[in-house]
Amino acid sequence: MTNRLAEAKSLYLRKHAENPIDWWTWCDEALATARAQNKPIFLSIGYSSCHWCTVMEGEAFSDIAIAHFMNANYLPIKVDREERPDLDSIYMQALQMMSGQGGWPLNIFLSPEDLVPFYAGTYFPVDPRYGRPGFLQVLQALRRYYDTEKAELQQRKALIIESLLTSAVLQDGTTDELEDRELLRQGWETSTGVITRNQSGNSFPMIPYTELALRGTRFNFESRYDGKQICTQRGLDLSLGGIYDHVAGGFHRYTVDPTWTVPHFEKMLYDNGQIVEYLGNLWSAGVQEPAFERAVAGTVQWLKREMTAPEGYFYASQDADSFIEPTAVEPEEGAFYVWSYSEVQQLLTPEELTELQEEFTVTPNGNFEGSNVFQRRNSGKLSTTLETALSKLFNARYGVSSESLETFPSARNNQEAKTTNWPGRIPSVTDTKMIVAWNSLMISGLARAAGVFQDPSYFELAARAANFILENQFVNGRFQRLNYQGEPTVLAQSEDYALFIKALLDLQASNPEHQQWLEKAIAIQDEFNEFLWSVELGGYNNTSSDFSQDLIVRERSYADNATPSANGIAIANLVRLALLTDNLDYLDLAELGLKAFKSVMHRSPQACPSLFTALDWYRNSTLIRSTTEQINSLIPKFLPASVFAITSDLPAGSIGLVCQGLKCLAPAENVEHLLQQVQKSQVRA
Q: Is the pLDDT of residue 164 over 90?
């Protein structure tokens, strides 16, 4: 017997379709039913590749006693955070206010009449353990509280909604040029400190911080940090660490240790797009480490093989867990990726095994539950022997050689994973939905890698995904966030607009001869401004003015998390558009946006590296006008605050014009003169 979620398009929601809980989706009917029945809402938010979401689905949400009490006393609603990041953002902030920490699954209890939360948590076990109460105990206690402590309940909710509203409205800052340079230095130093190697805890890519740290190295700020060395180390950790799949390409979500060794094994599209762009930028900044190029190439091969739909867009994610054998009841974490020592011994020649052990962390005891996660010990280029050995392991995992495997079919759910006759191991489930924001991050990464490594196939892959979005993600003239097997749905949110406009501008930067990318960016920016710009506060709201009725606050994303903040990206886009179009209205909006978030940049620079990147664009933006040949020679260079415009109308005897904001410098007479002007322009006082 299935519940309502059996009809959902979301893979995450469908995973809960056989729960005995009477789940609803977030919709007007569910909210009205909760009010009519005076039932508090139990809102549970997660995503398909979330390990502890999967655990809770198989435990508490499958428990008959819990379901019986839940159905009688609550209105249970399931939300996929990848469908509704606006809801997730609001209620995650509430969880952090109540508990001091966040994470998924996000389980939160709301009053039906106003949707204000009064209690929240993450993973709840069936029975008390890990220092956490049993879930049924929690449900019983909270229902008693809701029924009997009305006065305290109202006070509690009033404090929470006041905190949420206060955090949504920031004080205005000021825009002072001298202050801005010092503010930029402080933001750079904070981000550089954030990505300095940890001595304990998990290791995350944190690419918005690494990007700001790298672009700030050109200023030679006085600091206790060696920015270039720290940025290089982050590139090495990513490319050599166990976070990278050395056998088949692609980056895992993070590692569970400070040494970048054992990953949490899910692969998210958004991480891979950002990391590809960062490694391309690091290479262009002069750190031309062969492991960077190999990691980029391997990630693109994984993307083409496993994450690209026939229509050209990119899938969202791959799970951390997979089945060892078709008869297994539950999947195991990392099973598709790890290697027993005996298996490696059997597959490789003694010479290959010896060299593999010298270069990678491969031991009889392993480093992950008796098995081995591969981590490189040294940088540099891998030998032919090692590449051959890794190819054999690829063949063992996939059942076919990497040269002959162009496309690897997706397991779209656990049933497909267990019943398909796979030639190699049973793969992890792939969430095949298309998310505009995440596709945009991958398009940007591919566009930058195409320019840096001079590989047109990267650009073609990016352009095809961008064209799919342009041709399919508009319904009645409005931009849509998601696509499920050809069906666009859910109005786009601020991150979709901002990141896709950036992707289009990045395609333009990688191939400036073709103006269609700029033209499309302008059109989508117009829609973004019309429906999401906050006239009262400045900056962009997370959701459009006609899609916010069920939200208790309208937020403006300024904090960076696993993905960059929408407003940080959007403000940088506005500066780029102003340079490319000579339309100063864009620059006015950029200034208003920075002013809107200046107070949080002063107060919490660790929260918002993308806003500092936008400030860098605003202060140091540089337009380079030159010929096609000259521009093509500049594309692979690290010019993080510059845009290109191809022109044949140059002053006699010059090869290009460098313009700083609203003024142009003397015509450059040769390449050396042009580069000197550009470098100075990008660090101007």
A: no
DSSP state letters, 415-471: HHHHHS--SSSPPPBEE--EEHHHHHHHHHHHHHHHHHHT-HHHHHHHHHHHHHHHH
Which of 197, 341, 203 minimizes the C-alpha distance to 262? 203
Q: How far apart are CA 515 and CA 218, in angstroms?
A: 30
Comparing C-alpha atoms, which of 547, 454, 564, 442 is closest to residue 498?
A: 564
| Residue for token pair 């040949």 | 629
Residues 517/521/522/523 CA torsion (nearest 10 deg): 100
Question: Which of 655, 621, 618, 662 is CA-nearest to residue 639?
Answer: 621
pLDDT reading at 174 higher than 70: no
Tell me if residue 121 falls in helix, strand or coil.
strand
Label residues 547-584 b or e (16+ Cβ within 10 Å = b). Answer: beeebbbbbbbbbbeebbbbbbbbbbbbbbbbbbeeee
**Higher per-residue confidence, 2 vs 473:** 473
Q: Are 576 and 643 in contact (CB under 8 A)?
A: yes
Q: What average pLDDT score do residues 65-93 get? A: 95
* Furthest CA-CA distance within the chain: 85
DSSP at 63: -
107-to-32, 44, 255 alpha-carbon distances in Å: 20, 4, 25
Instruction: Round to whole Å and give the CA distance between 497 and 537.
Output: 19
pLDDT at 175: 46
Let me know: does 492 contact 565? Beta carbons within 8 Å: no
pLDDT score, position 178? 47
Q: What is the pTM of this model?
A: 0.93
Q: Percentage of residues in the chain with pLDDT exceeding 70? A: 99
Q: Assign 76 to helix, strand or coil.
A: strand
Q: Using CA atoms in the order 83, 86, 89, 92, what is the torsion angle rounded to 10 degrees?
A: -70
What would the two tokens of residue 584 be? 């100063």
Asked if 80 and 48 touch (Cβ cutoff 8 Å), the reply is: yes
Which three-class secondary structure state does DSSP give residue 481? strand
d(CA 511, CA 465): 16
Buried b (16+ CB within 10 A) or exposed e, 326-347: eeeeebebbbbbbbebeebeee
DSSP one-letter string for 530-596: HHHB-TTTSSB-SS-TTS-TT-SS-------SSS--HHHHHHHHHHHHHHHH--HHHHHHHHHHHHH
Specify the DSSP class assigned to residue 374. -
